[in-house]
Amino acid sequence: VDSKSELAGLTESEITSAANDAKAAGHEGKYLINITNTTRQPVLASLENRELRQRIWEASANRGLTGENETASLVARLAQLRAERAALLGYDNWASYRLAPQMAKTPEAVYSMFGSMVPAVVANTEKEAADIQAMITKTGGKFELAPWDWEFYAEKVRKEKFALDASSVRPYFEFNRVLEDGVFYTLKELYGVTLKPRPDLPVYHPDVKAYEMFDADGSSMAIFYADYFAREGKRGGAWMSSFVGQSFLEGTKPVVVNVMNIKKAPEGEPTFVSYDQVTTMFHEMGHGTHGMFSKVTYPSLAGTAVSRDFVEFPSTFEEDWAAHPKVLANYAKHYETGAPIPEELLQKLLKSGSFNQGYDTLEYMAAALVDMEWHSLSPDAPLQDVATFEANALKKHGLNITAVPPRYKSTYFAHAFPGGYSASYYAYMWSEILAADAFAYVQTQGGLNREIGMKYRKNIREVGNSIAPMEAYKNFRGQEPTTEGLLNRRGLNTVN
Ligand SMILES: [Zn+2]
Questions:
Q1: Cα(224) to centroid of ligand 1, in Å?
Q2: To which H or E segment does residue 244 belong?
Q3: Which of 58, 106, 329, 397 is most buried, judging by how many CB atoms fall within 10 Å of its CB?
Q4: Torsion-angle region of residue 164: left (phi > 0), alpha (psi -120 to 50) or beta?
Q5: pLDDT-based confidence at 280, cuts 50/70/90?
Q6: Which residues place a Cβ less than 5 A from the ion ligand 1?
Q7: pLDDT for the residue numbered 495
Q8: Rounded mean pLDDT of the chain?
Q9: Spatial distance between the Cα atoms of 267 and 272, rounded to a whole number of angstroms
Q10: Is 284 a catalytic residue?
């Protein structure tokens, strides 16, 4: 970018970074905007200059199609070679080979599950597009919504419709309350387990806390390490990991850790967490208990060693308890007065999560189905033209909406091509479908109670990969999952 005036809308520090990046790249006096890995570019939410937005979006979306970093020919050839390899292994296509050990089992199962969501997702996306078009017109724009306008105007819609002052909710989410009266409380109510501090056990940093988990009958089940706070040199993000896996064969009990990067308050002051962090604490404990509840013989089948379209099911299921009225009432209390979070504020907070969900869901599904279509090619299919193939795949599934391109296009789709996620990008949402279906089912069985909680714990969390995942699911649920729960979870069941 040649001049600073084109960067209106960015903060001073973003502009300074762009100037420094340009200098480092040998273009002193100019500004460099780096493209991130998704089609969508974060900078598009704030850049006011429409021509520059278009340039950036096109640079992103056309990556790899031509020029010195062209990848399109590799994509087409890879798809062909994978189909050939699948044939050698006795499968119809690469996707069938890849899905055989997964819960979904066949690409057809994924097409059918995702296909059932398309009408609701498209309807919501169209409504969002209409809101954005109205915002364009309202703010004086005389043009039709293009992909490079979406985030810029969606941000204005969000501020108008879903604005939430983060500082107003903060006092209701004090870290210890969330952990003990939220996360641990849910474990006790649903699964009968309790966690007791074990200050005598060694830890690898003073911020880390060790707990022992006990079953309802008092028997010891596992050791849980809580490593929630950010510190220098610690990897960012949040995850669960296992120090010792469960196995009857080896006689081992699980030792697991949940890691997050919450900013710790100075000594003597309460630490607060955002609502996003609250749900992440529940999420990681879902993985944690998947490890700690394990009751299998072989270590290779224990805990979270399940198929990748199943592994995020327990964690996403656990996440949804954070917003359950009974659970919320137990932990979301003002840190000084103990007063419950005001209903109006709570509703605003929960509603803000449904913003832009049509777009988010559609761009994800588009990428997942393009991935699956590439890998459903038969071994004798001719070499494909990438742009044409992608356009046809989107059209076939009714997801060809110009303003909402796939999250990744084939030429820069690392999951599907160089990475290990070929024919597997669908797995994230498959897990979410299970979680939402299971959570909705549990609500019809009395919600937060031990009886249904134990049925779920036994059939889903204890069995690891020792039972075929669909069998395990049906043992718990009495039927195969449907997508209605997911549409509800994302606020897509009706057009709002
Ligand atoms: Zn997870």
A1: 17
A2: strand 239-244
A3: 397
A4: beta
A5: very high
A6: 312, 315
A7: 73
A8: 96
A9: 13
A10: yes
